[in-house]
Each structure stands twice: as structure tokens, then as C-alpha cells.
Amino acid sequence: MTGTQTADEPRGTAADGPPNGPLLDVRDLAVTYPGGAAAVRGVNLSVAAGRKLGIAGESGCGKSTLAMALLRLLPVGTRVSGQILLDGEDVLGMKWGRVRAVRWAGASMVFQGAMHSLNAVHRIGDQIAEPILLHKQATPAAARRRARELLEHVGLPAARADAYPHELSGGQRQRVMIAMALACDPRLIIADEPTTALDVMIQAQILRLIERLVAEQDIGLIMISHDLAVLADTCDRLAVMYAGRVVEEGPARQVYEDARHPYGRALSSAFPRIGDRSSRFAPRGLPGDPPDPAALPSGCTFHPRCPVALDSCAVDDQPLRDAGPGRAAACVRVDGAAGGAGTGADEGDGASGEEPSDGTAPGGAQDEARSSTP
User: What is the dihedral of CA 268, 273, 277, 280, to 10 degrees?
Assistant: First the structure.
């Protein structure tokens, strides 16, 4: 693990990764906001080109903070440690000029809330063309042509380039955000709640569009959502975050249908399933809220809400454990030697995970914090 830095101060030398390694490799990432709120604690994740990683969890679990940290978009004074290797180069070690060059061109982000992310007084085409002008050194005419091509690529008429954000529907604005993310041909896209507040039909269209673009352009995708069903349908792998750390990781469909960690199982059970009358008439939820990242409980941070917690859970924190092929979970009930079946699995507690992604992070309201870029 490398040293600690603040968000307004670049850190030493970039690390060289293996030539055939993952597109993005996050190692022991920790984020602490001014005031002491530890929003991300020791997260380890990786994404290969052409693959899709979903990150799920309640509001306040550290998902958005993790996304912002990947491109150093956190507020000034935030302490960040660990490594964020993008194509083998440590983002935390880059000088600011290099960081600006990587944003949009190397990795781009689809922010939450398209209406709030777009500039209300500028036309859509001009906003898409701006990063093209800055990063591609294109002429204004070429940038405008590219902006229209991108709109058509995401299923909008080129003529919408002359529209203002308020003249578009929610689904159209979200497509514009995706077009902007693709403007400089990035290798990695981070989509933070890309389908929030969209109706089911538009949501499905956006998800199919994202899948098509990843497949056609061999882009790596990190998709953040509260909805496990959406992530299971869209992503290859799924990481579940709680209190700033990854508590379960594995193949997306397996995590959704057979979560091994009690928290992952609670999230999955919160969504009614078509044809399952019991879930329709008696959907199961999870009482309480994620803990305050500035005042985390002792031991396993989930134990105050866990229906199958042991006495030891209040004392001993739980690392990610082998929970079967390609799976890991941070639960004392996980028995990796038994193929990932938890000792309490017969009682429905489900405790296991996916491949070791030793990550942790306490979440709080701060994980939704938006920050200004330098």
C-alpha cells in the first residue's frame, strides 16, 4: 500500500502495472473526509476491458465516494490512500495536468441526475463538443460534427444538438450524458445511478444501450445502483458495499439469486420477484440505516442490523473470505472449504461472497458529496 495523500495534493510516482493486467485495478483504497468520516475503507476491485462491474448498496455505503475517488473528484482536504491503477498508472500519483488529460480521454463518468449535471443555459451540442475541443484538439466544426454523430450513436436525432436540457425528456438527457462520456473515446466509464428516476421502459432502453456500447467498443464499465436486479441483468460481476467496504463480491447473477452475506441477501430480498407471491404480498426489508462513517460500531459494522449475528460479531471485524469459485463474503458464517455454504445457510442467513475483493468502506451522506474539479 502506498502513502496517504489529500485530494488537493498529487502523490509521488505512478505505479507500473503488468502489460496484460486489468484496465482498472483498485488496491486497498481508503477515503476519509475532513472531520474524520471514513467513507471508504480498504476497497479492492478490478475491471477488465469489455467487462462490467456493478456496485450495489444503500445510500450512505460509500458507492459514490468510491466513484469520485477513481478520478480524484473529491473535495479539497479529503485523505485518500491506496492505489488506483488505470492501465497500470496510479491515478493518485499523477500530477494535475496528467489527471486532466486522463479525465474524459482515459476514463469518464456519467453523474447522477442528468438535469443537474448538464448546464441549463448551453445547448446540448456545445456541451458534448467541449471535451472534444479540449482533449482532441479538434476544430469547432469537427467537434460539432462529432457531437451530432454521438447523439445518433446513443439513439437521438442529430438535430437535438441545438436543444437546451429543459427541452429534453429524462431519458433523452440521460442519453446525452452517455454521449458526453463517450466523446473522447475513453477506455473506462463510471456510471453513477444512470437510470435513477427513469420509468421502466426508458430504464431498459438505457441499460441495453450501455451493454451495446461496452460490447462494441471494448469499454470497461463500473455501474453503481441501489437496484440489484438491474445490476444482475446488466453486469458480469457484482460487489456489495456496506459501511464503506465490500462485503460480498462475485458473479452478478449468483450474488443476486444466492447472496451469501446477510446484507447482500437482505438487499436481494427487498425486491419483489415476478411469480413469487410471498415476495409480492410480504416483501422483506432491513430495519435501520447504515452507520455513521464518523462513528462506526465495533467489530463487524453490520452486526447491529444482522438477523444472524453471533456474539463475536460485535468484537471481531470480518475480512472477506473464500465463499466458493470466484466468490467472497465478509461474514463469520462463510465456510469457504465447504464450497461457500455458510454455516447458517439452512436458516436463510446466507453468508458468503465472491472472489476476494478485500474492500471496506464506511458510507455516509458524504459519499454522495459532489466536488469541484481543480
Answer: 70
Contact between 332 and 318 (Cβ < 8 Å): yes
CA-nearest of 294, 231, 237, 309 to 267 is: 231
Q: Give domain limits for the chain.
A: 108-183, 257-347
Helix axis angle, 124-135 to 170-182, nearest 10°:
10
DSSP 3-state assignment of 362?
coil
Cell, residue 127: 456541451
CB atoms within 10 A of CB 278: 10
Mean pLDDT of the 5-27 span: 61
Cell numbers given for 81: 490512500
Structure-block grid coordinates of residue 330: 465478509
With cut-offs at 50, 70 and 90, classify the pLDDT of residue 203. Answer: confident
Asked if 365 and 63 count as a contact pair (C-beta separation under 8 A), the reply is no
Task: Give me the count of residues in the chain.
Answer: 374
pTM, full prediction = 0.81
Which amino acid is present at 96?
A: W
Is pLDDT at 336 greater than 80 in this prediction? no
Alpha carbon distance 5, 92 (integer Å):
8
Q: In the predicted model, what is the mean pLDDT of residues 332-348? A: 51
Task: Indicate the SS3 state at residue 304.
Answer: coil
User: Which cell goes with 101?
Assistant: 488529460
The whole-angstrom distance between residue 196's C-alpha and the CA centroid of its chain comes to 14
Q: How many helices (H) and strands (E) does the chain have?
A: 11, 13
How far, in Å, are 134, 185, 337 from residue 202 at the CA level?
A: 32, 24, 44
pLDDT of residue 281: 65
Kindly report, residue by residue over 33-56, the tens digit of the pLDDT.
Answer: 999 999 999 999 999 999 999 999
Mean per-residue pLDDT of the chain: 83
Q: How far apart are CA 160 and CA 155, in angstroms?
A: 11
- Greatest Cα pair distance, the chain, in angstroms, is 67
Grouping H, G, I as helix, E, B as strand and the rest as coil, residue 99 is helix
Q: What is the structure's pLDDT at 97?
A: 93
